[in-house]
Amino acid sequence: MKPAPTLSTAFLHPAGQSLPEPLLALRKQRGTALVDMPLPTRKTENWKYSSKYLKLTDDMAISLPADGKTGSGLAVPGYKVAFLNGVMMPEACEYPDLDGISIKSFGDLSDEEASDLADRLDSTLDNKAVQMARLNSARFEDGLLIRLKPDAVLDQPLFIVHEVTAEASGSAFPRIFVDAGRHSQITLVEEYISSGSAQVMVNTVTEFNVADGANITSIRLNMEGENVQHIGSTGVLQQRSSRFESHTVGFGGPLRRHDLQVRLEGEGAECKLNGVVVTQGKQHYDNHTTIEHVAAHCNSEETYRNIAADQSHAVFNGRIHIHQDAQKSNADMNNKNLLLSNGAEIDTKPELEIYADDVKCAHGATIGQLDEISLFYLVSRGIGRRQANVLLTMAFINELVEQIPVEAVRETVQGRLNHFFEQTFQEA
Questions:
Q1: How far apart are CA 362 and CA 296, in angstroms?
Q2: Of 30, 139, 283, 375, which one is least surrounded by beta carbons within 10 A?
Q3: Do 78 and 159 form a contact (C-beta atoms < 8 A)?
Q4: Is there a contact between 134 and 30 (Cβ–Cβ < 8 Å)?
Q5: Domain that holds residue 330
Q6: For residues 333 and 319, what is the distance between their CA atoms, to the nearest angstrom?
Q7: Could you say which DSSP state residue 273 is in?
Q8: Structural domains of the chain, count
Q9: Contacts by 390-394 with C-beta closer than 8 Å and gap 24+?
């Protein structure tokens, strides 16, 4: 029997050392635990559709250099933090100057702050389910710590632009930790972009610790190039009466993977997860979500839409777990999928695991193609077939795009979708 592949030792040697000692010690500890770590295969349940797309060559283990200028990213007024190849670029940042809000790079933390952070990193994630997040913990060279004191409110969205310059093969490991105090509020926009054509990997982890009554809106926009493998993990830990709202928009690539884990630990906590994915060519995109209802009287709402064209492949695996003490839980999951060609493939797997008897839960999934009757109706009224295809496809996802609460992000998404339509639909 052929032995299972393991992570190359080339990935266990981080380059950057400009971190406080507690974080260096944590990174070393995590790296030691990764020795002989099995890589995902088709027999790995949560990677069975994606393992064949994962290409971790030794030249990708090299940390990409953070010695250049960042691009513009989302051109919007307001607060901005820029990362280049996983390292913060202070000269390109515009920080808020508000009481109760602290934004620091990992490298600028005191030993006391770094020690406290080291104790909390990875606390929001099930590392057995998100294996590749452990690699980020062993390799991050910088990161961003956002702390909101009780009742602190960020008056504008904070844009975090992660740029990768792929002039040569390598990897980057961005890291974010958000600590939101009681009744605080923040809208966080993560944008992932790239330049260059070398084969690179981006491995990201973002964690949210959401205290009682806090309100967090997270927007994640993945627009990296065709040469970038992107593996991302987001962990959320919610306390009493808190609210977390997520809007994820992803455009496909050689491998796109996002694990989103939400744990509702306090009574009355609520989460809303929206996701839109489009793929074309031979692209691949895999969304895995998990919502853990641990406490009673919690609500969750999840809606994901996938569109696949050409020979591309999209995956959705959503799991809702209602624990025994989570009585009066209300959970709803909906996944709709649209195939634009006979060669495209979409796999969907909604899951409900319920151990409480006084709950209201529902889940559903559909996969189909554009309705020929609707197309005929539009064409018969003078609309070109290409425009009719665009109108019906946009209608399929526009409900979720319009819910994105930041106008600049909506406009960026619309622009990329228009480009997708131009490439996918030809005038008949």
A1: 17
A2: 375
A3: yes
A4: yes
A5: 21-370
A6: 9
A7: E
A8: 1
A9: 390/421, 390/425, 393/307, 393/338, 393/340, 393/421, 393/425, 394/421
pLDDT digits (tens, 9 = 90+) for 305-336: 999 999 999 999 999 999 999 999 999 999 99
Instruction: Give the CB-side neighbour count of residue 260, counting CA atoms within 13 A.
Output: 25
Q: Give the residue among 87, 52, 12, 57 at the shortest CA–CA distance from 200.
A: 57
Cα 387 versus chain centre, distance: 31
How far the first Cα of the chain sits from its last, in Å, is 52
Question: Of all residues in the chain, what percent are helix, strand and coil, respectively (each to 5)?
Answer: 20, 40, 35
Of 76 and 349, more confident:
349
CB 384 within 8 A of CB 427: yes
Q: Is the pLDDT of residue 1 over 80?
A: no
Residue-wise burial string across 397-421, b where 16 or more C-beta atoms lie within 10 A, e elsewhere: beebbeebebebbbebbeeebeebb
Q: How far is CA 391 from the centre of its chain?
A: 27
Euclidean distance between CA atoms 94 and 317, whole angstroms: 37
Please report the beta strands in 252-359, taking only residues with DSSP state E, as ranges in sequence order.
255-264, 270-279, 284-293, 299-308, 313-322, 330-339, 345-354
For residues 103 and 180, give the distance between their C-alpha atoms in angstroms, rounded to a whole number. Answer: 12
Any domain includes 419: no
CB-side exposure of 389: number of CA atoms within 13 Å? Answer: 21
| Residue 195 within a domain | yes
pTM over 0.85: yes
Inside any domain, residue 379: no
Place of tokens 């997040």: 133
Q: Report yes or no on 11 lying in a domain.
A: no
Q: From CA 86, how far away is CA 160, in angstroms rounded?
A: 11
What DSSP designation does 60 have? G
Q: Do 180 and 101 contact (CB within 8 A), yes or no?
A: no
Please give the distance of CA 401 from its chain centroid, rounded to a whole number.
Answer: 16
Q: How many helices (H) and strands (E) does the chain have?
A: 6, 20
Residue 121 has which token pair?
Answer: 């990193």
CA angle 20, 26, 30 (to 5 degrees): 145
